[in-house]
Amino acid sequence: MKISEIITGWYKKNRRSLPWRATRDPYRIWLSEVILQQTRISQGTAYYQAFVGRFPDINALAGASEQEVIKLWQGLGYYSRARNLHAAARQVVGDLDGMFPASRDELLNLKGIGPYTAAAIASIAYNEPVAAVDGNVARVISRLFAIDTPVNTPKGEKEISGMAETLLDRDDPGEHNQAMMEFGALQCVPVNPDCHGCPLNSLCRAFAEDRVAELPVKLKKAKIKKRYFTYMVISHQKHTYIERRTSDDIWKELYQFPLTEHDTLPKEEEIPGIVEARIGALPEMLFGGTPHELGKPRFSIYTHEQDRPQYSNEPHDQGKPRFSIHHISEPVKHQLTHQLITARFVHVEITEKGFRAPVGWERVPPEKVGEYPLPRLIDRYLEMEDGAPG
DNA sequence: TACACGTGGAT
DNA sequence: TATCCAAGTGT
After folding, report:
1. Over the range A209-247, which residues count as b (16 or more CB within 10 Å of their CB) and which as e?
2. Which of the listed residues A34, A76, A105, A114 has the most CB atoms within 10 Å of its CB?
3. pLDDT one-digit tens code per residue, A19-55
């Protein structure tokens, strides 16, 4: 029996019943593939259901605002996928007269669709005989043929994809590709696979050579960088302020409380100065400080705990806004693939009546913050705050 | 080409 | 706790 037949036979018995396997609609298959990029099925399934429910076809997706799409994507990570998904929907509706690309080569022209996703859609939706190589397939092939070229290099990728094309069942490429991926996901798992119960063990070179555990070979990733954020949760006349992240950095197009970043973790007693630098440094014209207020506190700390640090009140500088710091959170850690973020949330009350937000800040009622797309770090903070106010 | 881009679960 | 990983793509 050929390898493809064995794996397909295994697949027919072991395949999971998944929502996107019940359709041939290219749009829904595309949606599922993008959601599942670098994402576990257990995490992505609910998002797929939500997207299909809210955007049942590509016209609905193209007609939505980017912000709404990102909001629905919130918590899934890799937000460029959401931006590209939305942009691609508009490409299809606007430039292609609503005709979804029907070949791998055409699919590759859409934002967010690369070699894997193009092959997956083309084979599953259109029966195009192209091999889809994802992490699962690469692992299966590297073990079957004991390929120890690092799979995350161009050379390794070519070797793997070459073998994938050779193995491909051209009569039923969609079924074949899904079988390969499912086999990798359930049988040929990364750690401690059940090789003795594997229908391919007699054909597997890695098994024969006892090298299963060392394959596939991957080049190690870049070192994790540490970043330190201070978020200012501002209270001003029953409103707070948020800003949109626009630079090419993490969380692009998501919202956050006004943020100052540091090279090292600031001590708690440094926080007032940090807030001062951000809020107090705004153009003094905007705050309407008046001379008769000289001598009043520029900022102050309120705390009911005796052993908390106390900060002396400094004389009020003319023209600077007055504010009070009500709470400084402990540092909160948030782990990303290449970054470890340590953040503090500082509750700042601006008591200056003439305060006007600078350009880029959006003035919103606190209860509306949750309607904006937020990084998990901030969303989680909001959840905590809801549970324990103050 | 090497690296950045999120999150949550497994080991 | 640290590390790796999961249906990759864009620059």
Report:
1. eeebeebbeeeeeeeeeebbbbbbbbbbeeebbbbbbee
2. A34
3. 999 999 999 999 999 999 999 999 999 999 999 999 9
